[in-house]
Every structure is written in C-alpha cells, then in structure tokens.
Amino acid sequence: MCRLYGFRATELTKVECTLVHAQNALIVQSCKDRSGTSHLHGWGLAAYQNGKLHIERRVQAAVEAEGFRRAASRTYSDAVLAHVRRATIGRVSLENTHPFSHGAWAFVHNGTLPNFNILRPRMLELMTPEHRSAIRGETDSEHVFHLILSRHETAPKRSLLETLHLSLGRIITWCLEIDPAARIGLNVLLTDGSRLVGSRWGRTLHFVERLGVHDCEICGFPHIRHDMRHSYRAVVIASEPITHEPWHEVPEGCVFSVTAAMGLEINARLPFPSQPQ
Q: Can you tell me the distance from the alpha carbon of 265 to that of 213, in angstroms, rounded to the nearest whole number?
C-alpha cells in the first residue's frame, strides 16, 4: 500500500495546496487515508522545470517531516509526481523510496506484486544489462520501472503506452500463472516530463481535468502566472480524491495516457490478450 499523485499542465503551476493544504492532501493521506491506513515509510517528490528533472526523497513520514512541506511549497512545475510509502517489499530506506528515476524518467507505484521472489528473476531476464545494473533497492516497484524502460528502449518504434501495456500485461500474466488467486496491486505513473502514462490494477485511482484559470478553493488564489495567449489545462491523478471538486474514477484494469490537451485518455485493458509480449 502507498499513495501516489501525478500532475500535468500546459503551464508551470504551484502544487502546494493539493500536496499539503487540501482537505485530503497527500500529506493527510500519509497520516491516514480513507481506509484508515497510514503511509509513514517515506516520501518523494519529482518535478520538471525547463525539461530538467528534480527529485527529493526522504525516509521520514511526510506528515511528520517539515521537509515535505518545504519541498511542496517550492514546487512550481508543469509535470509532477509525488508519493508516500507504506512498505511491503523492501526495507525502509532511501534506495527503496519513490519516485524512482533514470535519466529523464520518473516513476511511482502503488501496490504489491505477490510472489516477488519468483517474479524477480523473470523480470531481470527481460531487462537490458544497463537497467539490471541500475537497480539500487529491493522493491518490486523499482524492478517494474526498469523492466518498462528496458522494453521501451529495445522497441523504440512502439509507443510508450503500448510498451507499458505489454510490460504490465506480462507481469500480471506471470503473477496469475504462479497463483491464479493472487491479489495484484499495479497502479503506476511514468513520465519524462512531457509524456505521462499510467495504469490501474487492484488499487483505487481517481482523476480530475481542469480547464481555465480559477482561484484555488483552498487558498483563494490562482496557482499559475497565466499567459493570456493560451488556454490553461491540467489533469491531476491521485489514489484518492484530494479536493471537493468532482473527481472521476479511473476504470479498473486499464492503462491510460495524458493527452497533449491535458485530458486523461483510457487506451487499453489489462492484461494484454495472449499475443507476443
């Protein structure tokens, strides 16, 4: 169990309210989510500015750490991932704290892969040597990340979304072969600061699309320095609704992408049917 957050917008935006001050901000979910579960085993924040990825991670609980509030307050970006961790696989350590990164890529995961000790060698076998050696921690999450990137780099003509679909379909198929009753948790978000794709499998996930500049319902001010020549659009994806505005549930068992118009497009169902993967 973890809680994740993803954000894409047409302009640089301040995200502090949704991370810290909103009714069900990510910091609130760190203390207690809607199921009553806490996520106290670390936090991380990835943000892009001028195409450059900046990541901050700590092993302290977000709700107990002033560092999370400071990091959120200075995040002004058009692409953000954030995460609060409840450890299931891997120690509570910096190496096992999300978001994971590689080059321009950032990745977060909510869920657990059952029988990971059996899955791990299969996943490693599908990775390139570069990505096998890039793994620093023990989590199933980091292995999923490098498996996806390995397959993306070795099949560059495939779209990122198709690669995600095939990779997660392969993992889910393995899990169900090992244990047909396996309770798989595979909600992921992956971005390079421009593209953002993700999945929902076995955990809650919601989104909201925003059009136009409005005063924030929390602080009363807009969060952007708006260029009047352009239309402002944004999409927020989160494990749980964060604000009082109407949120929509991402369909269970799907992969999705954020479009150039900053909308959420549901593209395919998981697992991928029995075709070469």
A: 22
d(CA 230, CA 108): 30
Phi, psi of 61 (to 5 degrees): -65, 135
Global confidence as pTM: 0.95
Tokens at 37, concatenated: 């579960």
Show the CA angle centred on residue 69, arms to residues 66 and 73, nearest 5°. 140
Q: Where are the domains of the chain?
A: 2-269
Q: Which of 141, 132, 206 has the alpha carbon at shortest distance from 168? A: 141
The rounded distance, in Å, linking the Cα atoms of 108 and 214 is 29
- Report residue 247 as tokens: 């949120």
CATH code of the domain made up of 2-269: 3.60.20.10
Residue 109 CA to residue 98 CA, distance in Å, equals 8
Q: Name which of 168, 140, 181, 175 is nearest 253 in CA terms.
A: 168
**Helical packing angle, 140-154 and 116-126, nearest 10°:** 20
Q: What is the pLDDT of residues 30-86, one digit of tens each?
A: 999 999 999 999 999 999 988 899 999 999 999 998 999 999 999 999 999 999 999
Indicate the Cα dihedral angle 139, 72, 258, 231, nearest 10°: -170
Cis peptide leading into residue 251 (ω within 30°) = no
187-191 and 196-200 strand pairing: antiparallel
Which letter does DSSP use for residue 250 in this model? P
